[in-house]
Specification:
By secondary structure, the chain is mainly α. Among the domains are: about 120 residues, Ankyrin repeat-containing domain (Serine Threonine Protein Phosphatase 5, Tetratricopeptide repeat), CATH 1.25.40; about 80 residues, Serine Threonine Protein Phosphatase 5, Tetratricopeptide repeat (Alpha Horseshoe). It is about 50% helix and about 0% strand. The protein has 16 helices and no strands. It starts with 14 loop residues before the first helix and ends in a 10-residue tail after the last helix. About 40% of the residues are buried.
Length: about 300
């Protein structure tokens, strides 16, 4: 017998429920977009960032802020990075995606093409381009900031290594980072929250070996500053210390990180591990920070 509308078991028109779910999703996305916009507008000079597409943009300090600070939340949630990567068509540049994927051959070809463009461009052509004065084709390639996190290509390699290194050859990310740095990419370029590529490599949260190798074999030997604080006043070793990741902390110490420096809020990484946070870190970390070797610029 055919089902009677209103009786238990009667088929329902799925359209209203689907429409309601879609509306709810769109409202949630609009709310999230508004939160992201507010996070950037309240913590960054967005006009400066927009005009400095190939530089660090607004890096004014944001000191003594809580973990719930909107820019922290934006950075921790990856901003709109994966939304742009997953868009169809992809909203990130092909070069940035090649860096993220650790595609060293594509990156090398693009760098070679930009070098040729540099050689063929006259000074007048560079000055009259739509980019800021004096920005060459190679610099545009190596330093262009993308997504609302303002990641340059070197950060893209580190982000890709964190996401993909368990499914791709580790060496491909290390070699891709090496190609960028050899071509002139700034090793201490910063994202919207002031994090350098070295800080991203060693923050201690689910850090794959690919990131540690990028830090040890590429960034450190090419002058990356292991004590450069982010906009929250945190040094790389200060940000990594609460994680208790001995591998990250050892790499930073080997590269010359000083755990006695203020790591934010007047607390050093050293005092975290021997004082206020001593019970939260392992014996291995406490012993590592008990060694005097960090004063000598190397961890043995």
């Amino acid at each position: 017998m055919p089902a009677v509308p209103g009786r238990r078991g009667a088929p329902r028109d799925p359209a209203p429920a689907f429409t309601q779910a879609l509306d709810a999703f769109e409202r949630m996305r609009a709310r999230d977009d508004a939160v992201l916009h507010d996070a950037l507008a309240s913590t960054c000079d967005t006009a400066l960032n927009a005009s400095d597409a190939f530089g660090d943009g607004d890096q004014k300090p944001l000191l003594n802020v809580m973990n719930s600070h909107p820019l922290r939340q934006l950075w921790s949630s990856s901003g709109d990075l994966f939304e742009k990567l997953d868009a169809s068509p992809c909203a990130m540049s092909p070069f940035w995606v090649a860096c993220f994927n650790g595609d060293k051959d594509a990156v090398r070809r693009a760098v070679d093409d930009a070098r040729k463009a540099d050689m063929n461009s006259t000074h007048a052509e560079i000055l009259t381009s739509e980019t800021p004065e004096g920005v060459s084709p190679l610099t545009r390639l190596l330093e262009k900031r993308e997504s609302n996190l303002r990641y340059p290509p070197l950060h893209a390699v580190v982000a890709g290594a964190r996401c993909l290194a368990r499914h791709a050859p580790i060496a491909s990310f290390v070699e891709t980072a090496s190609v960028l740095v050899a071509a002139g990419a700034r090793v201490d370029s910063r994202d919207v929250a002031g994090h350098t590529a070295l800080a991203k490599c060693t923050n201690g949260v689910d850090t794959p070996n690919a990131c540690l190798l990028i830090a040890l074999e590429v960034l450190g030997p090419n002058g990356a500053d292991p004590n450069l604080a982010n906009r929250f006043g945190e040094t790389p070793i200060g940000a990594a210390a609460p994680s208790g990741n001995v591998g990250c902390l050892s790499v930073l110490l080997e590269l010359g990180a000083d755990p006695s420096l203020d790591a934010g809020a007047g607390v050093s990484a050293l005092s975290m591990c021997h004082g206020v946070c001593a019970m939260l870190v392992s014996q291995d970390v406490r012993e590592l920070f008990s060694l005097p070797v960090w004063k000598e610029g190397g961890c043995v």
